[in-house]
Amino acid sequence: MNKFFNIKVDAKSALPIYEQVKRSIKLAIFSGRLEDGDQVRSIRELSLKLRINPNTIIKVYSQLEAEGFLISRPGAGYFVKLDRKKMQREKHGLFEELTTEYVAKMLELGYSMDELIHEIRKYGRNSSFEKNLKEFESAGY
Amino acid sequence: MAETLLLKRILRSSRVLATRDLSFSYGKHSVFKNFNLDVPEGQVCLITGINGVGKSTLLRLIAGVLKPASGKIVFSERLAKSPKRKIGFISDMLSLYESLTVAQGIDFHKDIYGLHQIDDSLIRHTKIGYSQKIKELSLGQRTIYHLSLILSLEPEILLIDEVIHSIDAYLRKLFLDQLIQLMSQRRITVVMVNLNFRDIEHLVERVILLKSGEIAVDEEIHSLKAKVKKIISTRPPTCLSVLSQNNFSDHAEFYVYPFSEALRDDIEGEIVDLDLTEIVAAFIGGEYA
Question: Is the ipTM of this complex over 0.95?
Answer without folding.
Answer: no
